[in-house]
Design goal:
The longest helix has 25 residues. A hairpin with a 3-residue loop joins β4 and β5. α2 packs parallel to α6 and α6 crosses α7. The chain has eight helices and seven strands. The two termini are about 35 Å apart. It has a seven-stranded mixed β-sheet.
Length: about 270
């Protein structure tokens, strides 16, 4: 997501920034609260770091058409690292099914008291979003085997997912229609804009001890960092966020790239020590 010349990586960082830009109002009701923010964080960790997302792909049937898609195979190789091949997922399927079933058991138990939303709220909150998106993706796109995953096996989890999808469609209907841009037009819109984030705090006591202005590499540690690392000048560092100034391909314009601290690493670039 780009807001002006500030580019945000990772959905966690994107949601956090949107929450800052649109504080609660009549037009934009609060999507999270002090009562649900902790639960939202736990569900985020459960979904991403407890590997529901990582293991989900491995539950696909070996004859799933996507295994013949070169783009899919390349995407997974970029995520898992050099040497990965599609047969690895097929071999991991039994373990993946066990893992994902256990995760569905957990979500099913969260609704044991027949609450509508995971935080026992009147409307969906960020906690629901953090927990349900991967569930919906698994059900909608991965064709999980019906003997293990169905409304009969997990009635409360499926009902939660269906309620959320209904609320999402209502929200989309209320929202203004976005303006679509082609790739090159989107690039020009970003490069021609001003910076939206004026806060460039760098914590002098950060455990990394990296100083403002140092040229660093920024990359995820939970996949994807094997093949691509963003490189730039450190301009922001807090316990929750890191931002670096990166030159555009033409070298005449900078953009600021933001990432969360969780599962992202910054390290001093080798040429910065020369």
């Amino acid at each position: 997501m780009a807001i002006g010349r500030d580019v945000y990586l990772d959905s966690r960082m994107i949601i956090q920034r949107l929450e800052q830009l649109f504080p609660p109002s009549e037009q934009h009701p609060a999507f999270s609260s002090k009562a649900t923010v902790g639960l939202a964080a736990l569900l985020n960790k459960f979904t991403v770091d407890a590997s529901l997302f990582r293991n989900a792909v491995s539950i696909m049937s070996p004859d799933f058409p996507v295994f013949a898609d070169a783009a899919f195979v390349k995407d997974r190789a970029d995520f898992f690292g050099k040497g990965w091949k599609a047969d690895d997922l097929k071999q991991q399927r039994p373990e993946g099914l066990v893992h994902v079933r256990q995760c569905f058991d957990i979500t099913e138990s969260l609704f044991a008291d027949d609450r509508l939303w995971v935080g026992a709220t009147e409307k969906p909150t960020l906690a629901d979003l953090e927990g349900v998106w991967s569930i919906d993706w698994i059900i909608s796109d991965l064709a999980p085997p019906k003997e293990y995953f169905s409304e009969d096996v997990y009635p409360k989890t499926y009902s939660w997912r269906n309620r959320f999808k209904t609320e999402l469609e209502k929200a989309r209907a209320r929202a203004p229609k976005p303006t679509a841009l082609q790739g090159s037009d989107a690039v020009q819109a970003v490069l021609g804009a001003d910076f939206s984030d004026k806060d460039q705090t760098v914590d002098a006591n950060d455990p990394t001890q990296v100083k403002v202005g140092t040229t660093v590499e920024l990359f995820p540690t939970d996949g994807g960092g094997f093949t691509h690392k963003d490189k730039g000048r450190l301009i922001k560092l807090t316990k929750d966020e890191v931002a670096i100034a990166v030159e555009s391909e033409k070298g005449s314009v900078e953009v600021h790239v933001h990432a969360p601290r969780w599962n992202f690493r910054i390290s001093e670039a080798r040429d910065a020590r020369l």
